[in-house]
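Researcher: Can you fold this with NAP in place?
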Amino acid sequence: MSELQSLDKAPEDVETDDCLSSYTYLYNPTLLQGRMAFLTGGGSGIGFRIAEIFMRHGCDTVIVGRNLQRVTEAAEKLRAATGRRCLALSADVRQPQSLIDAVEEALKTFSRIDILVNNAAGNFLCPASSLSFNAFKVVLDIDTMGTFNASKILFDRFFRDNGGVIINISATLSYKGQVLQVHAGSAKAAIDAMTKHLAVEWGPSRVRVNSLAPGPISGTEGMRRLGGAAAEAAGMWNNIPLQRAGNKTEVAHGALFLASPLASYVTGTTLVMDGGSWMTSPNHLTASLDLWSSEMKKSK
Ligand code: HXC
Ligand code: NAP
């Protein structure tokens, strides 16, 4: 055998919301040189790593979340690790005016925005029959409305005249009706539909719009909330064709591809990054309800 590494080898990652201690470039380090990206939910998890990988490829960033302290600390780490500029701003994607203020601030600082990553989301396990009307609405408000709000504001204020790229972080939950996930699955399915509608309407303005749907990704709040530890302990990764969870750097590399000129003719599609997981992972109502009720008992 040659000494070449296998083509499904995971890149470096760290489980916490910290920058990578080492990074091996696979793409040209100047891939996003001179670009600016606006990321919702960029203070933690997948959004944080996307910001880092974009910055390592020459991009400046604005990261937005509700918790100003969290995004401020994240921006300090990102600047220190990459030497690029990163502005931390507080906004709630459910409130258009707070997003308009953040976009205006970003444009005042950087004079341009090339890439929007709609990554902010909310989720928890809950059977549909136990979900309050408000709980369902809150998740759709953050995920779906938040994605529309940010996309429309960026289009109005910059992309209509200058072109741009939108990446919507969605999920595979609706593909086979994942149990205890009607709220998030519905919200993300609507986002994938929005991706196609906006790609068609905004293509003539040179705006590319794509979704990126991760599977189970280690070192994330999503994985913690959706029973990642229990899944790992139960050997559930063996159900995934690639036999492991994904990592945040892998998702960030997908976002980097979609953001870059490598994807110059890609719009209106969904890049699924889940190791094949959605096709083979279990979707058992009774077992999932048992897990949920034991978690609920523990939290009381
Ligand atoms: C049932 C719940 C609940 C839970 C909240 N609610 N948590 N219902 N089970 N665990 C209900 C509340 O009772 C309330 O309904 C309504 O939801 C709104 O709750 P609030 O706490 O008032 O909302 P808010 O402060 O806006 O917070 C939103 C949130 C919260 C989604 C509930 O968890 C959040 O801010 N999450 C952000 C971080 C996050 O979720 N990250 C993971 C993303 S991962 P009532 O009726 O009482 O008013 C992800 C993975 C996807 O998306 C796919 C993975 C494979
Ligand atoms: P995370 O760390 O909780 O990321 C969510 C981010 O969104 C947080 O930084 C949060 O910051 C921000 N946010 C939440 N509500 C907001 C609001 N109303 N306005 C502005 N910002 C808000 O979770 P993650 O696991 O990395 O998930 C990131 C994305 O990947 C999400 O879209 C998720 O659905 C998707 N995804 C994750 C997985 C996974 O395995 N983790 C799988 C599939 C899809 P504040 O709390 O400070 O606002």
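Model: Folded with NAP in place. The mean pLDDT is 96.
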